[in-house]
Amino acid sequence: MDTRVFLARCDTYEQADSAVERVLDAFGGAAAILAGRKRVLVKPNLIMPKKPDAAATTHPAVVAAVCAAFVKAGADVAIIDSTGGPHSKAVLKMLYSRCGMEDAARQSGARLSYDTRSRTVETPDGRVIQKITLLAPVLGAELVVSVGKAKTHGMMSMTGCSKNLFGCVPGLGKPNLHRKYPNRKDFAGMLVDVCERINPGFSVLDGVWGMEGAGPTGGDPKHLRVIAGGFNPYAIDLAQCHLMGLRRDSVYSLAEAASRGLAPEAPEQLTWLGDDPEPLRTQFLPAIKHKKDAVPEILPNCAGCGDCARICPQKCIAIQDKKAVVDGDSCIRCYCCHEFCPAKAIMLG
Predict the structure, then answer these.
(1) What would the pLDDT profile of 141-196 be if each residue is shown by its tens digit?
(2) 20 to 30 Å CA-CA from 303: which of 107, 156, 199, 249?
(3) Are the C-beta atoms of residues 56 and 216 closer than 8 Å to each other?
(4) What b/e sequence results for 309-326 when a residue is b if at least 16 CB atoms lie within 10 Å of its CB, and e otherwise?
(5) Across the strands, what pairs with 146?
(6) If 0-12 CB within 10 Å is exposed, 13-18 middle and 19+ buried, where does residue 14 land?
């Protein structure tokens, strides 16, 4: 188990280039991480088409810095993600444009992947899921780099570098997995199975500005002032949990990873490199401020756009009189509706 996590203090995104360089240099630099590999897939967190200053998506400055380093080292670098909606070239075009990825690719020499193919593969060591459908470009890459975003999360408490790889499940496959694994511990086990199947070769965390409260999309930006990185995505997530002041036992994916010997049990067991973590610690409001198993409540500002109904894995949301209505008896409390509501019109108790 690699327990190393490098922290680079980064107060503004104008400092992202130097901070990412420090992170990569601590592990030998991009060329050493490549170790002769050429086909690199960079996976940011682009959960939905939102502008970078909303802090819901990985900032393009961090993505550009990571991509540029591997391009300079001689790699062919592509950027890819998939939202929870339809996975099409038109959706990707809008996603990349709104999230600043077109600029990130242009500045770094990377390219944007519009390859929408997927393949179903086995997960030989999977504890929860034995087969999974993943984006074909991810499976074809020689090196996958997870570039996560520091955020709270309504179902999993926190999202960072390991859960970021759930985005490698194409489009509507994500709500289908929510329906299949409504229990949070089972869902966390599935996330670890997915991460292990993808086996990222390196991970970087955008924690310059994170999201607190109603994450991963409806919360508020909060200044965390750090870019972190390392070979072990779970170790980075544990460091993130510590820096955000969240309870480690509330993050089910970290508990699952620790039970498999993939992550330390506590932040004290990490090998901290770079800047001192203590001055960087900031108390984040947790995402789960609702009663346990609360049924999503539709607020008066609901515009009746229907995004929640389309994303709901149980199909228990309907649009009536231009407002969303939730069937609480059928709801599995995955909170996908809350996550993808563009108007922040869904409250969790």
Answers:
(1) 999 999 999 999 988 999 999 999 999 999 889 988 988 998 999 999 999 999 99
(2) 156
(3) yes
(4) bbbbbbebbeeeeeebeb
(5) 43, 203
(6) exposed
Average pLDDT of the chain, as a whole number: 94
Give the domain ranges of the chain: 4-280, 297-347
Radius of gyration from C-alpha coordinates of the chain: 19
Over the chain, what HEC string results?
CCCEEEEEECCCHHHHHHHHHHHHHCCCCHHHHHCCCCEEEEEECCCCCCCHHHCCCCCHHHHHHHHHHHHHCCCEEEECCCCCCCCCHHHHHHHHHHHCHHHHHHHHCCEECCCCCEEEEECCCCCCCCEEEEEHHHHHCCEEEEEEEEEEECCCEEECCCHHHHHHCCCCHHHHHHHHCCCHHHHHHHHHHHHHHHCCCEEEEEEEEEEECCCCCCCEEEEEEEEEEECCHHHHHHHHHHHCCCCHHHCHHHHHHHHCCCCCCCHHHCEEEECCCHHHCCCCCCCCCCCCCCCCEECCCCCCCCHHHHHCCCCCEEEECCEEEECCCCCCCCCHHHHHCCCCCEECC
- State pTM to two decimals: 0.90
How confident is the model over 75-84, as pLDDT tens digits? Answer: 999 999 998 8
Task: Label residue 344 by pLDDT band (50, 70, 90).
Answer: confident
Instruction: Quote the CA–CA distance of 22 and 16 in Å, as a whole number.
Output: 10
CATH of domain 4-280: 3.40.50.11440
The length of the chain in residues reads 349
pLDDT band for 290, please (50, 70, 90 cuts).
very low
Q: CA 96, CA 102: separation in Å to the nearest integer?
A: 6
Give me the CATH topology for the region 297-347.
Alpha-Beta Plaits (3.30.70)
Contacts of residue 121, defined as CB under 8 A and 6 or more positions apart, other chains included, come to 131, 132, 133, 134, 139, 197
Say how far apart CA 116 and CA 118 lie, in whole Å: 7
Q: How far apart, in whole angstroms, are the C-alpha atoms of residue 280 and residue 301?
A: 36
312 φ, ψ (degrees, to nearest 5): -65, 120
